[in-house]
Amino acid sequence: MIPFDVLVLFITASVALAIAPGPDNIFVLTQSALHGRRAGVLITLGLCTGLLVHISAVALGVAAILQKSVLAFNALKMAGAGYLLYLAWQAFRSGGTELVGQKNGPRGGWALYARGIVMNVTNPKVAIFFLAFLPQFADPARGPLPLQIVLLGAVFMICALLVFGCIAWAASRIGHWLRRSQRAHLVLNRVAGSVFVLLAGRLALSRQ
Length: 208
Known about the structure:
The protein is an all-alpha fold. The protein has helices at 4-19, 23-35, 37-60, 63-68, 70-94, 109-121, 124-133, 145-178, 182-205. It starts with a helix and ends with a helix.
């Protein structure tokens, strides 16, 4: 059982980390502004599902491989950067002539959900972050470490879900107003595309 004071400290740190600007919450923000609150929520659910992969990797010790293997780390980060560039290309291609729900915007719930999963899973920095962050709040004296890691990961997921959900709601309110203008929609797509390119560059240049 995780002590109450440790849990409060962990929740505080998790919320602060979820709020701090990063690839995931920026991704939720841009997609919510472009495609609405539903898109942001579905992508948030996908991102949190992706966290399950990283949490499992830490609990099983797999994340240590990414930390030690340059080849595995580089392969995963290049896959992530490539996916972000693909999203950038889609955003730039959309222009301002196609509004939300048309052919270049993600329409299906599963497509949006999958987009969040891919975005999160292909970022090796998340696995390494969890490898460094979660064990700080675990203690062998309290029982099996893998179980504690899973419990802490679940709490982190809930915190991220709540924070990202708020970001999706706020961004969709602003985006709803902007999407009424074709020119504003063009600007939104250009901004989103530029953000994806920057995130891809940041991921590609990241080190272990």
